[in-house]
Amino acid sequence: MRLVLETDRTVKGGLPETAPGGAWMLSGPEEPAAEPTPPPANPETPPPVAGHKVGPIVPIRSSPREESFELRLPPGSSAKATIERLAPDRLAIRLPAAQWVPPEAALPAIRSVETENDGTALRIALNLERPMGVRSVVEGGVLRFTLVRPEVGDGKLAGKVVVVDAGHGGQDSGAKAPGGGVLEKDLNLAMALEIAEQLTRQGADVILTRASDVFLPLRERSEIANRANASFFISVHVNSNRVANSRSGTTVFHHKDDPIGQLLADCIQREIGATSGLPNLGTWSDGKIYASGFAVLRYAKMPAVLLELGFINHATDLRRIRTDDFRKRVASAVVEGLKVFLGDGQNQAR
Question: Looking at residues 64-78, what average pLDDT do you find?
Answer without folding.
Answer: 89
